[in-house]
Write a structure and sequence with these properties.
The complex is a heterodimer of chains A (about 200) and B (about 625).
Chain A: E1 2-8, H1 22-51, H2 64-89, H3 93-119, H4 129-159, H5 166-195
Chain B: H1 17-28, H2 33-39, H3 43-72, H4 82-116, H5 125-147, H6 172-200, H7 213-245, H8 258-292, H9 299-312, H10 328-340, H11 342-358, H12 365-387, H13 390-396, H14 400-430, H15 436-462, H16 479-509, H17 547-550, E1 554-559, E2 567-571, E3 578-583, H18 590-607, H19 611-614, H20 616-627
Helix pairs in contact in B: 3-4, 3-5, 3-16, 4-5, 4-6, 4-8, 5-6, 5-18, 6-7, 6-18, 7-8, 7-9, 8-11, 8-12, 8-14, 9-11, 12-14, 12-15, 14-15, 15-16, 18-20
The chains are: A mainly alpha (about 200), B mainly alpha (about 625).
């Protein structure tokens, strides 16, 4: 088939941010399906809550302080996270490096807090269906937290190497985007895990 | 953020003709040798492997079906033991649903969608390779387990409490649950790739209302996968946790509830039917337009029907649970929604009939299969409306009536379009035509064989034969119809043998296809058959919904993409305006290594929970290796 060139795209950029880029949509897709996973797990919790006359089953509700401390730290983390987004858009390598280190440290702190939260659930996974679903939901969210922290650490290391090229700033903004999802997912789960058993 | 091309970079606007083709081939080809093959990230290579593997599982699942039909051909046969029979019907259902039907549809999308939207590779090609390996390993895991007599035997939906440790204290249900995890990971990955490919990699000018109907169908299917499969992953994970670390999700003595399983499973399981059927409708639309020699009538109606079907498919799951003692309001609601979904499906059927009626149909093999689809699917739809009603469902629940119904829907709705699609796209994939003569035999054997095999099951169900029984006594009076059904099954199997013969014969001796043997209208036919590694020498520009019918002499294209490294053109979501020249990943061995590490993790965790601990570091290492820039030029921009 004969070809007729009707347009030249040589002047287009080779990477972009947000909805212009492919990886952003990929992250969006994974957030959608992982969000669905959370929704299903929440549905399972509420189903078990509805069919059982007592809730929690054979345990006292989780201690409030670890989950609440996490909420505070998660919400505060949005500030450095958003700042990371800005300096990445400005392609300010020095500041991006500092921000990624800070975000990795926050993530690790949250993982430590998460350890306390497991210890203060006041139930084991094999105690009752209540214990099982609580551990499942907390485990599911911890997987997301750990994955994002791992990703942040790798990205932070990468930005200290010779691979810290302009297109990596777009990766940093995608990482920022995903962190917001981890934060956002935690808020309803916190209400569910820590407050529904107190109703 | 603007990073214009380096001035000295070789681009496709300075090369022409054969020199351009050769240069792009060099950049985009899969490396040679075994290691090269294992590194491939070409969507056509991965897609072909996906299709072949899925058909291999069809063959295996089909052999199981024949074994069951031999066992049931007469009363009190001892060809299969009860235990073997349980494994076989479970393996048949699980293989057909999880290893054939869903993967084969995604496989066609992996091969065709990038070509149909006019790009060089799928979005996230390494994830695509990873997805294939996960599918392959998951399928092999199930079948090797079966060969070792650890094949699951609790039915393809593995209801608790039967599948709980107390009632099935073997490894069989664990194998089933973990196979689910493998295949869902694979399917979810492909879905995200398809969504991003359709959203961002469309050729310039391919606005939303110019997307081919098959691509629309795969887009809707991908969203269905993304929102349905997490449910079965939660289900299979909780089941395996109950069995391995004593969680109590389904243990009614500790607050668990067996019906939770049914809700979680069918919240996935019902959309699953549409995950299989909607791609079939996309294939039908593509084939019908080409052979009716006119665009499908009611393009927006078809798309809105697909989307409506997608939404409604999430509101029907409870009709699988009508006999569990639902509140009346629930039963009423789900009856209504189950009947409602017949409306968008019906609209599509009328659009197709109108297209046939108004067109100048050319009755080649692909069109025959489409007509077979319409007949069989409508019959399946009618019995579907019947079982949507609670009183009828209560009567025929778990009988052969249901077996007949879902085979009419699934084989009619998906396998007939699929075989039509094989005849239709084989020339593109292999470069040669399938034999038309064998094709006609193939169709008539399939059509007659299918109906002889499955129609009698309606009657068997109505006269009381339950599904999943390994034998029956002579005084039940089920023998004649069962024998008839078994005979039909053999004829149906023969039709697939003929398809295999046709494929093998035509690969060597088939007539050369050329670029566009059917004179079709969509972009995959604008390149050679089989397409070169780069798909298109230059990215097409789309000005019409049926670009090759609007102008079959010349193809408007864009230039300016790199000819010395892998680059694809990203366009805007709605208008498909060019936005970015984005690098596309090079071949890599890491997706395979990541899949191996994940396989060790998944299989290990069946035997010890500690696998979650020691299995994680290798996965992390392979993922870092995967994403770490390898120092190639496109990574360093």
């Amino acid at each position: 088939m004969r070809q007729t060139i009707v347009r030249n795209v040589a002047e287009l950029p080779t990477y972009g941010y947000g909805p212009r880029s492919g990886p952003w949509w990929g992250a969006m897709g994974f957030m959608a399906l992982e969000g669905m996973g959370f929704a299903i797990a929440v549905g399972a919790y509420l189903y078990l809550y509805a069919v059982n006359p007592t809730w929690p089953i054979g345990a006292s509700p989780p201690d409030l302080w670890p989950g609440t401390a996490e909420v505070a730290l998660y919400l505060l983390s949005i500030i450095p996270n958003e700042y990371t987004n800005r300096v990445a858009h400005r392609q300010d390598l020095a500041k991006v490096r500092i921000c990624l280190v800070v975000m990795a440290a926050i993530g690790i702190a949250l993982l430590v807090l998460r350890g306390f939260e497991f210890a203060h659930l006041n139930t084991r996974w094999d105690n009752s269906a209540y214990g099982s679903i609580v551990w499942l939901i907390l485990g599911l969210h911890t997987t997301h937290l750990a994955t994002d922290v791992g990703d942040t650490v790798v990205l932070a290391v990468l930005m200290f190497t010779r691979h810290a090229k302009p297109r990596r700033f777009s990766d940093v903004t995608d990482n920022v985007f995903y962190w917001n999802f981890v934060v956002l997912a935690w808020l309803p789960l916190y209400v569910l895990l820590d407050w529904v058993p107190r109703l | 953020m603007s990073m214009a091309a380096e001035p000295n970079e070789l681009r496709d606007d300075v090369l022409n003709g054969l020199r351009l083709s050769r240069q792009l081939e060099k950049v985009w080809r899969t490396p040679s040798g075994l290691v090269g093959a294992l590194m491939s990230v070409d969507h056509k290579v991965v897609g072909r492997r996906y299709i072949l593997t899925a058909f291999a599982f069809l063959l295996l699942g089909g052999i199981l079906a024949i074994l069951m039909r031999v066992q049931l051909a007469g009363p009190e046969k001892t060809f299969l033991s009860a235990d073997k029979y349980n494994q076989i019907f479970t393996m048949h259902g699980s293989t057909m649903m999880f290893l054939f039907a869903v993967p084969v549809m995604e496989a066609f999308a992996v091969y065709l969608v990038p070509l149909m939207v006019g790009t060089r590779n799928i979005a996230f090609p390494r994830l695509n390779a990873f997805s294939y390996w996960m599918f392959l390993f998951g399928g092999c895991f199930l079948w090797i387990s079966f060969a070792l007599n650890v094949g699951p035997d609790v039915g393809w939906f593995a209801y608790v409490p039967l599948s709980s440790l107390q009632y099935t204290p073997t490894k069989r249900p664990d194998v089933w649950a973990q196979m689910i995890t493998f295949t869902e990971v694979a399917a979810l990955a492909v879905s995200v790739e398809i969504v991003v490919t359709v959203f961002k990699l469309r050729a310039p000018g391919m606005t939303l209302d110019r997307i081919p109907l098959f691509v629309w169908a795969m887009l809707v299917t991908s969203f269905l996968v993304m929102f349905a499969m997490p449910s079965v992953m939660v289900a299979s994970t909780s089941l395996i946790l109950d069995r391995l670390v004593n969680t109590r999700f389904y243990d009614s003595s500790s607050g668990g509830h067996p019906l939770l399983w049914q809700h979680l499973f069918w919240f996935f399981g019902h959309p699953e039917v549409y995950i299989i059927f909607i791609p079939g409708t996309g294939m039908v639309s593509a084939i019908l337009a080409t052979f009716a020699r006119r665009p499908v009538i009611g393009y927006p109606v078809v798309i809105l029907s697909l989307i409506a079907t997608g939404f409604l498919s999430f509101g029907l799951w409870v009709h699988h649970m009508f006999v569990t003692g639902l509140p009346q309001l629930g039963a009423g609601l789900f009856t209504a929604s189950s009947m409602l979904i017949a409306v968008p499906s019906g609209l599509q059927i009328f659009c197709w009939l109108a297209t046939l009626w108004d067109g100048r149909p050319v009755y080649r093999t692909p069109l025959l299969f489409v007509i077979g689809f319409i007949v069989i699917f409508v019959l399946g739809g009618l019995s579907g409306v019947m079982v949507a009603s609670v009183p009828i469902d209560t009567q025929v629940h778990d009988t052969y009536f249901v077996v007949a119904h879902f085979h009419y829907v699934l084989i009619g709705g998906a396998v007939f379009p699929l075989v039509g699609a094989v005849y239709y796209w084989f020339p593109k994939i292999a470069g040669r035509m399938l034999s038309e003569r064998l094709g006609r035999w193939n169709f008539w054997l399939a059509f007659i064989g299918f109906n002889v095999a499955f129609f009698p099951m309606h009657i068997l169900g109505l006269i009381g034969m339950p599904r999943r029984v390994y034998t029956y006594t002579a005084d039940m009076d089920w023998a004649h119809l069962n024998l008839l059904s078994s005979g039909g099954a053999l004829i149906f199997a023969l039709s697939f043998a003929l398809l295999l013969v046709n494929v093998i014969y035509s690969l060597r001796k088939g007539e050369l296809a050329g670029d566009n043997p059917w004179n079709a209208s969509t972009l995959e036919w604008a390149t050679s058959s089989p397409p070169p590694p780069q798909n298109f020498d230059r990215i097409p520009v789309v000005k019409h919904r049926d670009p090759l019918w609007a102008d079959n002499e010349s193809l408007p294209v864009v230039a300016g993409l790199s000819a010395e490294r892998r680059e694809v053109l990203l366009t805007s979501l709605a208008e498909a305006e060019p936005q970015i020249r984005e690098a596309s990943p090079e071949p890599s061995i890491w997706p395979l290594l990541a899949a191996i590490a994940t396989t060790v993790f998944f299989i290990g965790s069946i035997f010890t929970p500690w696998a979650v601990l020691w299995g994680t570091p290798p996965m992390a290492v392979t993922l870092i290796g995967w994403f770490w820039p390898a120092g190639s030029k496109e990574d360093e921009e």
